[in-house]
Amino acid sequence: MAQLLVSIRDTAEAELINKCNIAIVDVKEPKRGSLGAATPKMLEAISGIISQPQTLSFAAGELSEWLSPNGQTFNKSPGSYYENVWNTFDFIKLGLAGATRDNNDWKTQLRLFFGEIPRDSKTKPVVVSYLDFQSSHSPTPNELIDFASSIDACSTILFDTFDKAKNSLASQSQSLLTDLIAKARSRSLTTVLAGSISTDCLGTALTSQPDLIGVRGAVCDSLRTDSISSDRVNEFVRVLQQANWNRALKN
């Protein structure tokens, strides 16, 4: 049965989410894009609020934001930048928007980025596959499934959308999305499906059988850049549990 990941942005939302029954609390800054990065200071503050042993993840933005003008080196060290959060967060995710347009060697660069994660930390990399890969100039989902399964430390792939005006179900056909998730599962990857998923399309999203559903906009007061509502989170949890139960009965 699918579990729930909810993305939060600050300490106020951390206080709200702390009392909700969800699998993963994710941290990002929605005003900075699909995977907008929160500051290390904010990550530290949030980790101090969320009750352990709650699973925590955070977004580090897009790979292009970390690259120097020559596209070969980082403009700052990810290892040093996040040095105070490696041992409190379970997962880090990084987007690849623009990677194919800029003709970057994204595989080498992404390996180098993930290589900055200290080996003795609890943090593991998550490979992000934008389902709207053509318009976001990102590698294809199949390429990223293959890439994720080639990294020993990586056990999770996130299927998301770069353009939040469209949900993940509009970015890929249902049959193709189901095939992608099945392929990832066959590679022993945990799958997360996100991208403007609401309660209205949740049943259809679950058809592809992801391990987790990721949301933000669906649990905000209005827009995804607004504050989340604990009532909306609890309602989404209720609807997800009911949808899981309905699927179980049918099977």
Q: Overview of this structure, please?
A:
The protein is an alpha/beta fold. The chain has a single domain (3-250), classed as Copper homeostasis (CutC) domain (TIM Barrel, Alpha-Beta Barrel). 35% of the residues lie in helices and 17% in strands. It has eleven helices and eight strands. Strands 1-2-3-4-5-6-7-8 form an eight-stranded parallel barrel, surrounded by five helices. Strand 1, helix 1 (11-17) and strand 2 form a beta-alpha-beta unit. It starts with a strand and ends with a helix. 41% of the residues are buried. The mean pLDDT is 93.
Shape field: globular
CATH classification class? Alpha Beta
The side-by-side strand order for the widest beta sheet comes to: 1-2-3-4-5-6-7-8
CATH architecture: Alpha-Beta Barrel
What pattern of helices and strands is seen along the backbone?
EHEHEHHEHEHHEHHEHEH
Number of domains: 1
- How would you state the average pLDDT, rounded? 93
Q: Whole-number radius of gyration? A: 17 Å
The total beta strand count reads 8
Residue stretches low in confidence (pLDDT < 50, at least 5 long) are: none
How many helical elements? 11
From the helix content, strand content and strand pairing, which structural class follows? alpha/beta
Q: Helical residue percent?
A: 25-40%
CATH topology term: TIM Barrel
**Which quaternary structure do these chains form?**
single chain
Keywords, separated by commas or semicolons:
35% helix; 11 helices; TIM Barrel; 251 residues; globular; alpha/beta; 8-stranded parallel barrel
Tell me briefly what this model is.
By secondary structure, the chain is an alpha/beta fold. The chain has helices at residues 11-17, 40-47, 63-66, 78-81, 106-115, 133-136, 141-149, 168-171, 174-186, 202-206, 230-250, and strands spanning 3-8, 24-27, 55-62, 91-95, 124-130, 156-160, 190-193, 212-215. 35% of the residues lie in helices and 17% in strands.
